Amino acid sequence: MNTGNLLTDHPELYEARFPDPERLAARWAQATLTAHGAGPRVLDLGCGTGRDAAWLHGAGREVTGADLSEAMLAHARARHPGPGYVRADLRGFDLGEGVFDAVVCLDSALLYCHTNEELDGLLGSCRRALRPGGLLVAEMRNGAFFLGRTELLDAPTSGEFTWRGRTYGHVTTLRVDRAAQLLRRRRVWTADGSPPLEQRSAWRLLFPQELRYALAAHGFDLVSLHDGPGPRTEPPWREGDPPSITADGDRLHVIARRM
User: Fold this and answer.
1) What is the domain extent for residue 197?
2) Of the candidates 28, 202, 12, which has an alpha carbon nearest to the alpha carbon of residue 114?
3) 87 DSSP β-pair partners
4) What is the structure's pLDDT at 194?
5) In total, how many domains does the chain have?
6) Please, what are the averages of pLDDT over each run of 10 residues along the chain (259 residues)?
7) 3-state DSSP assignment of residue 116
8) Which single residue of 19, 70, 93, 130 could bond 88 by disulfide (Cβ 3.0 to 4.6 Å)?
9) 123/56 same-domain check
């Protein structure tokens, strides 16, 4: 069986697999930034295909998109122009000091920091990049959701989609690695006429209290930490929805201000 990352290596396929025609993630980020008075200079950290960065640019912000994947960045420059796109590792980067009014980190990108050292690297880099009073806005899976819950882990899930006349199927298995505090995913892709492709990835399972502690340790004042609504909650966020006062659901939304 071949191994690789089918979607990261093929950004057009990624967008076909995860369509966001309403640009919910970017609109949620924009509404959050506006509500908290963030200035125009935004770093989209882990920007992926550039869809959200380009929408925020179109909404009037000065956006820099940063990602580690050259394939994603090439796609973003070609298909979602407007922002400046740079290659950077979110676990430790230097894009200047006090350059940005806000850092946006969507779709669990922050959880690719698997160790405490990597999380320190991200938060320290974000603090350095932000001006005093700047915002860090993040959206991710909630580690606390998996305390006593197993519905996402009980059995593999499967699905398929068709893109340009070709059908792609996948079987996904999740498991919790408690010692490493990671949610590990194994996904096997099949496509017409091709051998199966195995993809393995993992996300850090961060808990709300951990986030509070880490943010404070890096000079951030926590403004809001809530489980919904957001762009990937059910039901999804809609313009004008107030944030919840709980942090128990599958998704976690963080708004913090650099002191």
Assistant:
1) 146-202
2) 202
3) 67
4) 84
5) 2
6) 77 93 97 98 98 98 97 97 98 97 98 98 98 98 94 95 93 96 96 89 97 98 97 96 95 98
7) helix
8) 93
9) yes
Rounded Cα distance, 119 and 133, in Å: 21
Query: What is the structure's pLDDT at 231?
Result: 97
Torsion angle of C-alpha atoms 132, 133, 137, 138, degrees rounded to 10: 50
Q: What is the pLDDT of residue 6?
A: 87
121 and 20, same structural domain? yes
Q: 74 — phi, psi (to 5°)?
A: -60, -40
| Residue partners of 125: CB distance under 8 A and separation at least 6 | 90, 92, 93, 94
Residue 258 confidence (pLDDT): 98
Whether 169 and 134 map to the same domain: the answer is: no
As given in the structure block, the two tokens for residue 10 are 């093929």
Query: Which residue has 């005093």 as its token pair?
Result: 132
SS3 state at 127: helix
Angle, alpha carbons 127-111-72 (nearest 5°): 90
The conformational region for residue 71 under phi > 0 = left, psi -120 to 50 = alpha, else beta, is alpha
How far is CA 104 from its chain centroid? Answer: 9
Which residues lie below 8 Å from residue 49, measured CB to CB, with a gap of 6+?
Answer: 11, 14, 15, 72, 75, 76, 79, 80
